[in-house]
Amino acid sequence: MSARTAASWQTSLADLSLILFMIAAAAISRQQGHLRQEQMTQAPQRLPSPEAAPLAIYLAAPGGPPLSRWLAGQAADPRQHLTVTVPYGPAPGDLSSALLQAGHLADEAARAGYRARIVVEPGPPPARAVLAFDDVVARSLLAPRRRTAEGTSLR
Fold first, then answer.
1. Which of 30, 36, 88, 113 is 20 to 30 Å from 97 at the Cα level?
2. In the Cβ-directed half-sphere of 32, how many Cα atoms lie within 13 Å?
3. What are phi and psi of 109, to 5 degrees?
4. pTM (2 decimals)?
5. Can you tell me where the transmembrane regions are (predicted)?
6. Domain positions in the chain
């Protein structure tokens, strides 16, 4: 077998691999485009998604302000969600004290006019609160706006 014949079949194989890759990439891109379009036409979700774009983070550290005062200093937006995460350790009473702390933080949030989603999970302290838009709202806010001929913006 000559060197020229070997190079010929290798080039053909490389060309076919490249063509197969381009076809697969185009098909995946089209499929993801359809999925994105379906998501945009669906009704808004009633429950916020766990993935969110955080706006502000509060840490329940010693000497820090209470959660209600921190929330009072934040810009209010009805599309925002408050998630309070309280960690607990491996000791037998840690879970009970974490649940108690979560209840206190939820009460503080309620006094400030927020309904909090509470998460109690194993991990190191301190407790934290995250004020965020849910993922669907965050994507719509970050989406580029189109301008009409009159200068008004469209989504």
1. 113
2. 6
3. -65, -40
4. 0.54
5. 6-28
6. 54-141
Of 86, 114, 115, the C-alpha closest to 102 is 86
Beta-bridged to residue 118, according to DSSP, are: 84
- Bridge pairing between strands 128-134 and 146-147: unpaired
Amino acid making up residue 10: Q
CB-based contact 127:64 (threshold 8 Å): no
Any idea how long the chain is? 155
Local confidence band at 122 (pLDDT 50, 70, 90 cut-offs): very high
